[in-house]
Amino acid sequence: MDETPTETIHRAQRATIAGWGRIGRAGRLLESVDLNRDSPHAALFRGLGRSYGDSAVPARETDLIVATPRADRLLFFNRENGALRAEAGLSLKTLNELFLHQGWFVPVTPGTQFVTLGGMVASDVHGKNHHVAGTFGHYVRALIMRTADGRIVECGPEREPELFWATVGGMGLTGHILEVEFTMERIPSPWIRCESRRIEDLRAFVAALKEAAREWPFTVGWIDCLKQGPHMGRGILICGRWAQPDEAPPAPPRLRRMIRMPFDCPEFLLSRPLVRAFNSYLFYTHPRPIKRRLMDPIAFFYPLDAIAEWNRMYGRRGFTQYQCVLPDPGDASIIAPFFERLTRRGVGSFLSVIKDCGAEGRGLLSFPKPGISIALDIPVRDNTSALVAELNRHVIEHGGRIYLTKDQFTAAADFRAMEPRLDRWLAVRRKWDPEGRIRSAQSVRLFGDHP
Amino acid sequence: MNALVLGATQGIGQALARQLGARGDTLFLLGRDASALERSARDIEARCGRAPAGYAICDLSAPEGFATALDAAWRALGRVDVVIVTAGQFGTQEELENDRARLATMLQVNFSNTILFCEDARERLLAAGGGTLCVLSSVAGDRGRKPVVLYGSTKAGLSYYLEALDHAYRSRGLVTICVKPGFVKTGMTAALKPPPFAGEPESVARDIIRAIDRGTPLLYTPRAWALVMRIIRLLPRAVMRRIGF
Ligand SMILES: Cc1cc2nc3c(=O)[nH]c(=O)nc-3n(C[C@H](O)[C@H](O)[C@H](O)COP(=O)(O)OP(=O)(O)OC[C@H]3O[C@@H](n4cnc5c(N)ncnc54)[C@H](O)[C@@H]3O)c2cc1C
Ligand SMILES: NC(=O)c1ccc[n+]([C@@H]2O[C@H](COP(=O)([O-])OP(=O)(O)OC[C@H]3O[C@@H](n4cnc5c(N)ncnc54)[C@H](OP(=O)(O)O)[C@@H]3O)[C@@H](O)[C@H]2O)c1
After folding, report:
1. Tens of pLDDT along A122-135?
2. Which of A74, A441, B34, B178 has its CA 20 to 30 A from that of B87?
3. Cβ B47–A74 below 8 Å, yes or no?
């Protein structure tokens, strides 16, 4: 901000700051070790930058963006009831390293462990257990925040609940989160029992997800989104639950090494024939009957983490993820036309993920609501905005919504049309930050902040 | 092992203290900021399941407080096996040239006061029959170089002291370890562009613990810096005058 002390500016670095989709903007980046000290001057906080879109990207070149991952102290962990408090930069990876083998896990995990607690709250992340567990915000007991007026405020479901529920899923725009307190969950063993099987088309997929939801706490589907015709929507359904001690090997899973994407891939690698071949390969190499196995939870929850910087696969122009949730009457009648549009346009999403969502959470801008969530990786090309606008039309028409943490291309009017809760959230934000001091490229694009 | 760490609130010292705690060593933390110390002590307790034996204020720019701080540590730990100093300051050549007050503080903190602290610790360790003194110097002290004229000189002096101390007192049971990190990604270097072979504090801390366990008197970490510095030490002055690093 304008009155940032020179000492703070000195420690910050001019940088291009991008989300996971690698479309960046210039700003001032400060890797903070002391969130308390550095927060009064920040325009925005960011964690490990795993949001795909522009939510952790600066609004202006002069804006100070404070990166939290060096502020990663655990402040307490109660081994009786799982209550845990930590600085907002603590990563899920560290939590897993410390506690998975001791019988504790986060109640909700996204599909990567390279996220911070602050990022998990700001996006109100959901996981493979959304149908039974809801979002992460549901397990948060308290937040310590630096609000735009410079005060330190503690909030939670009972204390300043309005600020709290505007912050859960609020994409960092209601104040900077300094500390997070939430409840960890006991697990019976550090292993997952996993079952997967082929699904032949979209309608069968929706039915299978619904059925699996009754039995399994973790479910997710991968879909071959290039397949047209009667087998449109074929893919693999993956279900899991924590293994009981008597089913699990005596030793915990061994640590794995990551490999690294060594360079930006050329764009032809994402051409339709190659993506088609890759998806068919995944489908046909899966055995036809049900495949049952014991899995390392790290491999089960975070398959993409095995390749560091896999986002370089999408080449220099970067990519975007499109994720929406659409209501479903149980027969795939709303998502089917969505996939028809996609396959007709030949959108070569390398990996497409489908998941049934449970009840809507209390976060004023939280993403999930009952229905089917679809996530697609789309390499950025000249027509990306038009494609997103077309998909958004379908979402608006059927009362669905998109996930802000993935978004970089939605128009403000479209977001407003799909988000009846927006005015309530904007009112809370205005109350805590009337001048819009806390802002991001996303808030300029979607919420009318000054560029 | 009972370990006393000055500088465990950030960076390499924080990684070291977490790893020592995780393997069951008993810690006592020294630092200049009470609230940072308290939070770091809680962090170690929550991560390792066991709290440090205590913590006390010790500011490297205020040597009159050293004795009190060390008294508190010795009282809490009973016996001290290793004293580790990771506290230190850095400034770019430009910053230090343009700010005399900051330069004066850095010269004192990194050189004279660190040595005063070590002298006090040395006496106490020797009085108890020996132990290990492990101090972080830097590759910046290995050769006079343009970007680290001032910072490097404090580390050159410190490295000299640490080597001599090891020669002088090893026979009486005091092992002195001089650690020379290369570029490590911590808050200290956050505003700089990482060069090749930049290290992470966690792996540097692992190397340091191994050196402490084995009594290795001189450690370059990450390893590649041993070779890099060997080459830089060999470069003729005419070359050093011309190049930028
Ligand atoms: C491979 C992969 C799989 C994923 N799977 C899922 C999934 O299954 N479910 C899901 O919900 N999400 C998923 N995500 C998205 C990811 O979980 C979120 O984007 C998450 O917010 C990223 O956390 P981060 O620490 O990297 O935050 P960043 O990306 O750095 O920031 C994200 C947002 O959080 C805000 N923020 C971060 N820290 C703070 C803070 N301390 N105070 C205030 N605001 C803050 C930022 O301002 C920004 O708006 C996935 C992402 C990837 C790359
Ligand atoms: N990082 C590198 O690339 C690198 C390279 C070569 C050598 N080194 C040396 O390695 C050591 C550790 O570096 P680092 O990267 O871990 O640094 P860091 O992250 O900046 O941490 C420095 C630590 O020193 C403490 N400290 C600073 N001034 C102090 C004072 N006056 N009194 C007491 N404590 C003080 C800080 O305490 P607060 O939390 O209170 O600030 C902090 O705990 C330093 O000696 C440094 O010179 C580092």
Report:
1. 999 999 999 999 99
2. A74
3. yes
- Split at pLDDT 50, 70, 90, the class of A112 is very high
Q: Over chain A, what is the mean pLDDT? A: 93
- What pLDDT is attached to residue A1? 42
Would you call A130 exposed, middle or buried from its count of C-beta atoms within 10 A (0-12, 13-18, 19+)? Answer: buried
How is residue A117 written in tokens?
A: 């607690």
Residue from A8, A33, A84 whose CB has the most chain B CBs within 10 Å, to mutate: A33
More confident site: A17 or A318: A17
Domains, chain B: 2-242 (3.40.50.720)
Q: Residue A10 to residues A14, A67, A132, A329, A359: CA-CA distances in angstroms?
A: 10, 15, 48, 56, 47
CATH top-level class for A192-418?
alpha beta
Is the CB of residue B13 less than 8 Å away from at least one CB of chain A? no
For chain B positions 58-97, those within 8 Å of chain A (CB to CB) are 95
DSSP symbol at A116: B
Per-residue confidence band for B244, with pLDDT thresholds at 50, 70 and 90:
confident
- pLDDT of A2 > 70? The answer is no
Paired strand residues for A24: A18
pTM: 0.96
| Proximal ligand: closest to the CA of A353 | 1
Do residues A77 and A172 touch, judged by C-beta distance below 8 A? no
pLDDT single digits (tens) A393-421: 999 999 999 999 999 999 999 999 999 99
Q: Which helix (H) or strand (E) holds B133?
A: strand B131-136
Question: For position A346, what pLDDT does the model report?
Answer: 73
Interface check A345 vs B, CB under 8 A: no
Q: What is the CATH number of domain A74-187?
A: 3.30.465.10
* DSSP string for B154-202: HHHHHHHHHHHHHHHHGGGTEEEEEEEE-SB-SGGGTTS---TT-B-HH
Alpha-carbon gap: A84 to the closest alpha carbon of chain B (Å): 9
Decide: B133 and B175 in contact? Cβ < 8 Å. yes
Instruction: Give me the residue spans of the domains in chain A.
Output: 12-67, 74-187, 192-418
On whether ipTM exceeds 0.85, the answer is yes
DSSP A279-290: HHHHHHHS-SS-
Q: How many CB atoms lie within 10 A of CB B32?
A: 18
Q: How many CB pairs under 8 A join A and B?
A: 40
**In chain B, what are the helix, strand and coil shares in percent, each to the nearest 5?**
55, 15, 25
Place of tokens 């606008």: A389
pLDDT tens by residue, B50-62: 999 999 999 999 9
Render A365-405 in DSSP notation, one character per residue. Answer: T----SEEEEEEEEE--TTHHHHHHHHHHHHHHTT-EE-GG
Give the Cα separation of B180 and B227 in Å (integer): 12
Written as one string, the DSSP assignment of A43-101 is SEEESS---SSSTTS-SSTT-EEEE-TT---EEEE-TTT-EEEEETT-BHHHHHHHHGG
Cβ partners under 8 Å of residue A151, min gap 6: none
**pLDDT tens-place string over residues A33-77:** 999 999 999 999 999 999 999 999 999 999 999 999 999 999 999
Contact call for B10 and A12, based on CB within 8 A: no
Residue nearest to atom 28 of ligand 1 (CA): A49
Return d(Cα B88, Cα B184) in angstroms, integer. Answer: 14
Residue A278 at interface with chain B, using a CB cutoff of 8 Å = no
- Put simply, the answer to whether B36 touches A79 (Cβ < 8 Å) is no
Nearest to A318 by CA among A59, A47, A21: A21
